[in-house]
């Protein structure tokens, strides 16, 4: 499937919005953790579990959407998922208990992950393998706006109208995106011969999992991105309780830190003109591991000032701006016929590890920045070690498969 040149920008923007829906849903309500906990009569650790349930919903939901996107085409399952998201968001507006919020956030995630899976699959549908890393970098430009705008916007919405209105805003935004999908996104051909019975679905997933390049880069990229999810889970407490920032100040700091992610994702395009995706990912993971370890060490020694922790996290997320587009492209490049299933597994692996990282930050909570920085460091160092060990086990250089699956 190809797209006309004059529609290229609009399609990439729409794919970016679909990809950013999940991150925006996370980032916008982070400044409201304390307000939500107070209003619902609970503690911040339980509200953090609503973030974990969101991660679990995205991870599990992507497994469902992968086969549906391959069977019915990208558009119909995508629209259904977006309206599930809208319904759950409206439910969050009126929720009165922490348990209800945790449940609805899970359902909301089931809807939002349709956009994430479909966007990755459509990149592979619309663009040749040689361009996918560059397109993922362009999507990161849209995704990167989310952590810059969302927490700041969320902080002001909470200040003016209360945290319930965050979910009203998300419902309206997603309705607009759904209309764009219905009226702008080109149709993709369904595959009526693809069975939705458990055995062929499992077989399709197994074929993807047997692909060496996919496993290496899905696990590597997923483990690296989990450090970012640990930051998302722990930063509201660390920044507002440990360092004393207000909700609005936290939003601005969050946006500043996220600028490292978006800037790096665009510099990635320049590096790809001279270097391979595998090479860029390797050095970015090495730097992220070093920065993560330094962040943890300074936290343990109680040597982190507000400026210091912001600077180190800025650099940590900047590395992620190089890691995500390249590992995603390298993981998906071997596939053409089962892109939906591959995209679903990629997202599921990434978010499953992210959910564990998020939950560990909550479980290890000790009123300091150490739990958050420890998980961030562990994820960064582990991802680099996975890549090194995989490279030594496989002596051959990773290449794009010539036989589409």
Sequence-ordered SSE layout with sheet pairings:
Blueprint: H1 5-27, H2 33-39, H3 44-72, H4 75-93, H5 98-126, H6 132-161, H7 164-183, H8 198-209, H9 212-242, H10 247-271, H11 277-300, H12 306-332, H13 339-363, H14 370-393
Helix pairs in contact: 1-5, 1-6, 1-7, 2-3, 3-4, 3-5, 3-13, 4-5, 4-7, 5-13, 6-10, 6-12, 9-12, 9-13, 9-14, 10-12, 11-12, 11-14, 13-14
Structure description:
- By secondary structure, the chain is mainly alpha-helical.
- The protein has a single domain (5-393), classed as Up-down Bundle (Growth Hormone, Chain: A), CATH 1.20.1250.
- The protein has 14 helices and no strands.
- The protein has helices spanning 5-27, 33-39, 44-72, 75-93, 98-126, 132-161, 164-183, 198-209, 212-242, 247-271, 277-300, 306-332, 339-363, 370-393.
- Helix 1 (5-27) crosses helix 6 and helix 11 packs antiparallel against helix 14.
- The radius of gyration is 20 Å and the shape is globular.
- The two termini are 17 Å apart.
């Amino acid at each position: 499937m190809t797209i006309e040149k004059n529609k290229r920008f609009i399609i990439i923007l729409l794919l970016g919005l679909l990809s950013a829906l999940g991150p925006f849903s996370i980032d916008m309500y982070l400044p409201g953790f304390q307000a939500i906990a107070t209003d619902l009569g609970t503690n911040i650790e339980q509200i953090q579990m609503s973030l974990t349930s969101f991660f679990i919903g995205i991870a599990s939901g992507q497994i469902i959407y992968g086969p549906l996107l391959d069977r019915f085409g990208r558009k119909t399952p995508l629209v259904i998922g977006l309206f599930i998201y809208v319904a759950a968001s409206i439910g969050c507006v009126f929720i009165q208990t922490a348990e209800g919020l945790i449940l609805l956030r899970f359902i909301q995630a089931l809807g939002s992950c349709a956009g994430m899976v479909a966007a990755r699959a459509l990149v592979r549908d619309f663009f040749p393998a040689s361009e996918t890393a560059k397109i993922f970098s362009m999507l990161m430009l849209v995704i990167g706006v989310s952590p810059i705008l969302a927490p700041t916007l969320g902080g002001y919405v909470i200040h003016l109208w209360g945290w319930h209105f965050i979910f009203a805003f998300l419902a309206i935004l997603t309705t607009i995106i759904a209309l764009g999908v219905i009226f702008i996104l080109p149709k993709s051909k369904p595959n009526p011969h693809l069975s939705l019975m458990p055995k062929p679905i499992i077989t399709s997933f197994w074929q993807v999992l047997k692909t060496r390049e996919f496993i290496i880069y899905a696990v590597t990229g997923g483990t690296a991105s989990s450090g970012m999810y640990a930051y998302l889970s722990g930063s509201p407490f660390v920044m507002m309780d440990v360092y004393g920032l207000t909700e609005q100040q936290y939003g601005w700091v969050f946006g500043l830190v996220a600028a490292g992610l978006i800037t790096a994702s665009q510099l990635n395009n320049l590096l790809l003109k001279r270097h391979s995706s595998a090479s860029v990912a390797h050095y970015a993971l090495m730097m992220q591991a070093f920065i993560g370890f330094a962040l943890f060490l300074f936290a343990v020694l109680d040597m982190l000032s507000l400026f210091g922790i912001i600077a180190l996290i800025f650099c940590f997320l900047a590395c992620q701006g190089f890691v995500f587009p390249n590992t995603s492209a390298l993981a998906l490049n071997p596939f053409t016929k089962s892109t939906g299933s591959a995209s679903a597994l990629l997202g599921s692996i990434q978010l499953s590890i992210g959910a564990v990282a998020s939950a560990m930050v909550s479980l290890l909570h000790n009123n300091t920045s150490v739990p958050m920085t420890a998980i961030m460091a562990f994820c960064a160092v582990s991802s680099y070690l996975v890549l090194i060990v995989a490279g030594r086990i496989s002596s051959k250089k990773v290449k794009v498969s010539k036989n589409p699956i």
